[in-house]
Write a structure and sequence with these properties.
Layout: E1 10-14, H1 18-30, E2 34-38, H2 41-51, E3 55-58, E4 61-62, E5 65-66, H3 67-75, E6 82-86, H4 91-100, E7 104-107, H5 112-127, E8 134-136, E9 140-143, E10 148-151, E11 154-156, H6 160-171, E12 177-178, H7 179-187, H8 195-209, E13 219-222, E14 226-229
Parallel strand pairs: 1-2, 1-3, 3-6, 6-7
Antiparallel strand pairs: 4-5, 8-9, 9-10, 10-11, 12-14, 13-14
């Protein structure tokens, strides 16, 4: 499959710096992706609606708007995966982008292999059925139908809150979920300011599913932002 193959995934790159666009276009093309380019938010929205890309790579700093607002606009009508690549490294920027509907967030400079891995995760989850019967992470297995969790073949008994927390992360494996997103989904709207709920229950969950809770293999902390369940195709 080549970058010109009409069956190749079409990626919309939203970036106002020509050199960065050229760099991204080159390495995506070399890995079999087709590329659309936009240098402004208005151009990006037009291309997103007219070409229906498989994935959007988005910078936040655009000359006619902000990538977070653009993310919200796209999310009003599309579930297309959005991966933010930005020089903004502040925790608040990451949280705002993820809460707006971005699927992942990488800070510039980023590793090409990691970006490609995150893109594969986002594309895979966008193409799979909404409800999977099970998830096997190589040592940690979750059977959604039976509501069973095993680690290295041994059953793991979880109370309802911890099971709900684990399955939420599992259904979004590889995607960062913010504290606010987790609180809303697990505890409801009334718990939005109770971030300690997540920390306490995550610590208990790690004790049960991780081989070494101090060096987690699966339940990864994104400092100041939230958590993700490590997908097998994403290292780190």
């Amino acid at each position: 499959m080549t970058a010109t193959d009409p069956l190749s995934p079409l990626v919309l790159v939203v970036e106002d710096e020509p050199q960065m666009r050229r760099f991204i276009r080159t390495f995506l093309g070399a890995h079999g992706y087709r590329v659309l380019e936009a240098s402004t938010a208005s151009e990006a929205l037009l291309l997103a609606t007219s070409h229906n890309p498989a994935l959007v790579l988005m910078d936040l700093g655009l000359p006619d708007g902000d990538g977070i607002s653009l993310t919200r606009s796209i999310r009003e009508w599309s579930k297309t995966p959005i991966v933010v690549i930005s020089a903004r490294g502040r925790e608040d920027d990451k949280v705002d982008a993820l809460d707006a509907g971005a699927d992942d967030y990488l800070t510039k400079p980023f590793g090409v292999n990691e970006l490609l891995a995150r893109m594969r995760v986002a594309l895979r989850h966008a193409s799979t059925a909404p409800v999977e019967q099970e998830l096997d992470l190589g040592g940690l297995r979750i059977d959604f139908a039976r509501r069973e969790v095993t680690r290295d073949g041994q059953p793991v008994h979880l109370p309802p809150i911890e099971y709900k927390l684990l399955t939420l992360l599992a259904r979004h494996a590889g995607k960062v979920l913010t504290h606010r997103q987790i609180l809303k989904e697990v505890w409801g709207h009334g718990a939005q300011e109770q971030a300690h709920y997540v920390r306490v229950h995550m610590a208990e969950l790690r004790k049960k599913v991780e081989r070494n809770p101090a060096r987690p293999e699966w339940l990864v902390t994104e400092p100041g932002v939230g958590y993700r369940l490590r997908d097998r195709s994403v290292g780190g």
